[in-house]
Recover the amino acids of this structure.
């Protein structure tokens, strides 16, 4: 019986392309300068941290040595630096000069020379009031309101009157220097003059006060008038915006008390406007 044998022909393996055979593996074009086992990611992370101004996880000497040997990382570092500079440094967009329009739209500043004369006169009235109080301290004028009282009571009332005259004189001088104090001194002086006028009329009818004593109260009346003028000039010199945005009535506060505190103004067409809650110049 014949014996059959099976023969296998050798399998042909395609030869590698000469182009692929010439391309080395790794991170360098040259075969002899290549480091196949080098991982470039940590070095690129260190280069990125250097561009961002952060501490590098790898010493700088080691990073520089790797850049000298790795051409791919040098190209990557150059592209990253160009991209970082393009993001951070941009050309300034040209803007129009609005100086002339802003100055033209701004309201003219009020003249400061005119409001000074009430303050100067108020300081003069304050000095006169201090002189009047000093005269009373020296005992040169006891006034004419102390009739019908014993010595202890009349002496105490005399001290009260002297203290009040000195305090008003100091208040006038202080308000002339610090105009903001006019809001506190004005209602006190006005109330005092109203009460003093009533008592002075009664004492004058009863003959308990002399005309010279009543004449000394003219300084207080002049002080009140000057305080009113200073207060008026102070309110006029407040900076107010030229245009205020109108507010719809539906969006306004429903509480009348809150609305009165906010003080919205009315427009010509009946709408409400919002204004600043305070006027104070920056120091």
């Amino acid at each position: 019986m014949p014996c059959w044998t099976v023969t296998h022909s050798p399998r042909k393996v395609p030869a590698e392309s000469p182009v692929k055979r010439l391309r080395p593996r790794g991170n360098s074009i040259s075969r002899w300068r290549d480091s196949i086992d080098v991982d470039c990611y940590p070095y690129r992370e260190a280069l990125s941290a250097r561009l961002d101004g952060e501490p590098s996880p790898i010493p700088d000497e080691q990073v520089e040595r790797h850049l000298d040997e790795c051409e791919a990382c040098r190209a990557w570092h150059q592209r990253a630096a160009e991209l970082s500079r393009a993001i951070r440094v941009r050309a300034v967009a040209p803007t129009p000069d609005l100086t002339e329009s802003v100055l033209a739209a701004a309201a003219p500043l009020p003249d400061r020379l005119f409001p000074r004369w009430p303050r100067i006169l108020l300081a003069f009235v304050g000095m006169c009031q201090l002189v009047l109080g000093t005269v009373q301290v020296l005992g040169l004028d006891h006034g004419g309101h102390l009739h019908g009282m014993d010595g202890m009571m009349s002496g105490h009332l005399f001290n009260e009157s002297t203290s009040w005259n000195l305090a008003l004189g100091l208040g006038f001088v202080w308000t002339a220097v610090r105009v903001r104090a006019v809001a506190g001194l004005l209602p006190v002086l006005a109330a005092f003059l109203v009460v003093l006028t009533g008592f002075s009329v009664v004492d004058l009818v009863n003959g308990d006060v002399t005309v010279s004593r009543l004449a000394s109260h003219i300084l207080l009346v002049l002080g009140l008038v000057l305080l009113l003028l200073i207060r008026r000039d102070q309110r006029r010199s407040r900076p107010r915006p030229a245009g205020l945005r109108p507010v719809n009535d539906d969006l306004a506060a429903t509480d009348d008390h809150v609305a009165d505190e906010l003080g919205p103004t009315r427009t010509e067409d009946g709408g409400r406007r919002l204004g600043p809650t305070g006027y104070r110049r920056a120091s």
Observations:
- Confidence is low (pLDDT under 50) at residues 1-26, 28-36, 242-264.
- Residues 192 and 220 are 9 Å apart (CA to CA).
